[in-house]
């Protein structure tokens, strides 16, 4: 007799790129293991629970528990639940979520390596994950001695703030920022809103304002003018990890990790941040050369070959501006690219070494272990 497939409800909206990525990760887990019978309602972010949930007889649930209605519906359920929301409305439920400190790190490094010293953040006060993202970005900037301008939304009237009123407040805030400024928007939809406002008030992107979103929703980013750079969350890995946790719970197994945070893959660079806000033209040229050629087995001498100054002079100015030596910047770029390929591809370690400027897999592994404290193979496994 054929084994009956487990019935799993996915209370995850399919209306945005990040959530669809999680759903793809859940599907990938199913394809590698056993098929589940999936119940997936069509719903938007922050939607109430579907009416059928009250009488549903299933085996497990993966949900974004972002409001009290969903929390109430799941609080006393008899089946295992895994949360993929940052709201933490049911603390005892196992959860898998984005590492907001990792998002902040990726965003900060992306903007600082372009020389920006004026930083800003614009979020959505109604979302817990936006508050966490803001706090992590402000803290990361402060660690390096930089202040971060934060948009404060107008006070609500009758419990809400109209889009028109919010837009006017954002426009006023943007006009007050120093030039140039690098701004992290809490997600791509907010970045699109800011970009539209910049057009209206004649703020040039990226010349006056470098703009970075989060989620890498390719449709939203590519249809923007200019196209939007965006931090790439590991949405598929979050979905995969959530499915693995639920599978363990449905089998009656103990979870190795009750709570799990998963960092981003990297940053998709597009025109909205493709600029260097560095006054020293030689340092800017060196950074641009490293950015364009770090995967080609370049060394410090290769950088010096395109910058007509003495090595000592450039090294001193480079370190003062960037906070790293030229060699450290080359290695950092390579290690970041290795992490992206380990996270986002199925390339072998030998292929990754070839694509990131290392003579062999062995040399790459030594450099990676020195930078990350573990070999690349273990790092890749730790991301799932």
From TrEMBL:
Protein name, as recorded: LacI family transcriptional regulator
SMART domains: HTH_ARAC
Cross-referenced PROSITE patterns: HTH_ARAC_FAMILY_2
Keyword Protease: no
Residue stretches making up the HTH araC/xylS-type domain: 284-382
Top-level taxon in the UniProt lineage: Bacteria
Key words, A-Z: DNA-binding, Transcription, Transcription regulation
Any GO molecular function: DNA-binding transcription factor activity
């Amino acid at each position: 007799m054929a084994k009956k497939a487990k019935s799993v409800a996915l209370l995850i909206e399919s209306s945005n790129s990040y959530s669809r990525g999680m759903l793809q990760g859940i599907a990938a887990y199913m394809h590698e293991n056993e098929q589940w019978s999936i119940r997936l309602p069509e719903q938007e972010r922050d939607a109430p629970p579907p009416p059928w949930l009250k009488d549903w007889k299933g085996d497990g649930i993966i949900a974004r528990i972002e409001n009290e209605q969903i929390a109430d519906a799941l609080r006393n359920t008899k089946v295992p639940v895994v949360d993929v929301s940052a709201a933490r409305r049911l603390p005892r439920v196992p959860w898998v979520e984005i590492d907001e400190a990792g998002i902040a790190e990726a965003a900060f490094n992306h903007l600082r390596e372009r020389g920006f010293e004026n930083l800003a953040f614009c979020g959505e006060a109604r979302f817990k994950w936006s508050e966490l993202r803001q706090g992590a970005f402000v803290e990361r900037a402060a660690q390096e001695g930089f202040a971060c301008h934060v948009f404060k939304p107008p006070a609500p009237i009758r419990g809400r703030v109209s889009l028109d009123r919010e837009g006017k407040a954002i426009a006023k805030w943007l006009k007050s920022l120093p030039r140039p400024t690098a701004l992290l928007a809490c997600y791509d939809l907010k970045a699109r809103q800011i970009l539209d406002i910049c057009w209206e008030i004649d703020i040039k992107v990226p010349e006056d304002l470098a703009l970075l979103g989060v989620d890498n929703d390719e449709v939203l980013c590519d249809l923007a003018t200019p196209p939007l750079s965006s931090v790439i969350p590991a949405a598929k890995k979050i979905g995969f990890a959530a499915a693995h946790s639920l599978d363990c719970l449905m089998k009656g197994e103990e979870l190795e990790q009750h709570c799990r945070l998963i960092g981003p893959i990297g940053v998709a660079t597009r025109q909205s941040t493709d600029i260097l806000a560095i006054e020293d033209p030689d340092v800017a040229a060196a950074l641009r050369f490293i950015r364009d050629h770090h995967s080609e087995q370049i060394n410090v001498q290769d950088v010096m070959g395109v910058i007509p100054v003495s090595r000592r002079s450039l090294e001193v100015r480079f370190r003062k501006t960037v906070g790293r030596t030229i060699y450290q910047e080359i290695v950092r770029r390579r290690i970041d690219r290795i992490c992206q390929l380990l996270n986002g591809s199925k390339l072998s370690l030998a292929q990754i070494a070839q694509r990131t400027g290392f003579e062999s897999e062995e040399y790459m592994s030594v450099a990676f272990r020195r930078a990350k404290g573990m070999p690349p193979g273990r790092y890749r496994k730790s991301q799932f």
